[in-house]
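Researcher: Checking consistency across runs. Here is PIG-L deacetylase family protein again:
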Amino acid sequence: MSSPFQRPSGPAEHVERALCVLAHPDDVDFGSAGTVATWTAAGTEVTYLIVTDGDAGGFDDTPREQMGPLRRAEQVAAAAEVGVTDVRFLGYPDGRLELTLDLRRDISRVIRQVRPQRVLTSSPERFWERIGASHPDHMTVGESTLRAVYPDARNPFAFPELLVDEGLDAWTVDEVWLGASPRADHAVDVTDVVDRKFAALKSHVTQVSHVPDLEGFVTGWMQQTAQRLGLPAGRLAEAFHVVHTA
């Protein structure tokens, strides 16, 4: 007989609701849009929570006051390409995220609103072999989200204003998927939905229009991921570290 405390050996095959919490517009699309496309195709309701508007991004002379609204619109368009219509923004300043109680509360609020069985976010660990994956905002959002998952969102006595003033009951998330993790142990084969991922990425005009061969670059990246995690030759994959949190 298995122990009642034994954790599942892998992620759930299907969940009803998933929440993706990322720092900037385009983060979810570079790392996870193919995976999200497989979830929505299977009937999972997916919500995006983007912590900043990405107002410090871009590669041209677009006025700074215009960049945030542009990037919000790009993220909404990108989400639609992979079947996501619920896109929320917290409006924190790009490039200046800190691990604060306010950020934990704001993420906890959305977890209690959406009530997801699965949360996808950035790894809070620095990836020394691929330093670009470890943007400080990414790491801060990953750690903040994990703290919101445990203990904040499930504890009715944490941020009591969420329950008392907003009527948001505590909610326990079953599993967290960490992207850009040095501990990635789960590959999602996205070969059959890669066109949807590319469509999502190309929606981020302010961020990718200067890249001469975006599809080639991202394809090579996903081929390496698939090979590293044991998928058959010719397949494309996105990779995650899956953490069981219930």
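Researcher: Does this match what you'd expect to see?
Model: One thing to look at in this run: Strands lie at 17-22, 45-52, 86-92, 118-122, 175-179, 186-189, 237-244.
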